[in-house]
Amino acid sequence: MATAATSAKTRQRKHSFSSSISLLNRTRSMTDQTLLGVLNILRMDEGQGHSFMVKAILPDGKPRLLSAERNMTVRDLVAGICQEYNLTNYQVRTLPEKTLLNLEAIKDDRLRCVKELVYAEEVYNDCLKSLFELYAEPLKSKLSRAEHHTLFAHVEPICTLSSSLYVKVEEAANNWNSASTAIGAIYAEFPLFREMYEDYYLAFKFARNLMRQKRENDSEFMTFVHNQRGSHRPQLDSLLLKPVQHLLECERILSNLLEKTSETHRDYAELAKVVSKFKQMVKDREEEVIEAEN
């Protein structure tokens, strides 16, 4: 049974944005060696882990996820980029969360929730892409088939599902009609959603144990993982945790959306079913999630 402190921590976590995302943009002049940009560190509470992702657009226009730690300075965060691109100068200005997401300008309460959902799905898809490109593919030749299966086999179906879901939610936001757009119906199109995440929850225990064994006994593996991460890329442990965290984030956003939806709206009944399923999934795995994040 969870303690009162644990339950309080969980409730607090549900009301925060679990991904911390930032944006770095290049200057207009292609000859300018100054990195200009926007850095947006979304709020974190005590229930979150020590690492979080920063979404970056590099000086050449290419996207990349950076890995940040609590109390890390902006200088440390962008040090790898500055070295890689030979930047002798850079400027970073900070903006509040809602400025980046532009949520305050949206008057429709439901659309504001959906825009936040689109943003969360975009970031999540970037994380899954990084997991495959930085680790899953390169590690095929460095792990046994069984070890590779333990770490990555259950991520691929989630990646496919999440990509399709993101496209549909983004399309709904772009073609928004306050009276008729239904978000609950989108999630209803993916009946295997719960099953896939349940499978991942179960597999994640074994993945964590394997990572623990590797840290203790396989210096070659850990050296590779460290080199892949470098000073500006997400670490493997953080990326493997993302599906667990994303479920909590979706439950929070969709619950908020339901609160903003009238019971007479055509989306209400289906959305209520979706939110109920998310809440049950979170409740079923509550203690496991807390353990995984600590």
TrEMBL record:
Q: Which residues form the DH domain?
A: 109-288
| Gene Ontology cellular component annotations, sorted alphabetically | cytoplasm
Q: Which organism is it from?
A: Pocillopora damicornis
Q: Which domain of life is it from?
A: Eukaryota
Q: Which SUPFAM superfamilies match?
A: DBL homology domain (DH-domain)
Gene3D superfamilies reported in the protein's UniProt record: Dbl homology (DH) domain
Q: What is this protein called?
A: DH domain-containing protein
List, in alphabetical order, the Gene Ontology terms for molecular function in this entry: guanyl-nucleotide exchange factor activity
Stored InterPro entries: DBL_dom_sf, DH_dom, FYVE_RhoGEF_PH
Note one Pfam family from the annotation: RhoGEF
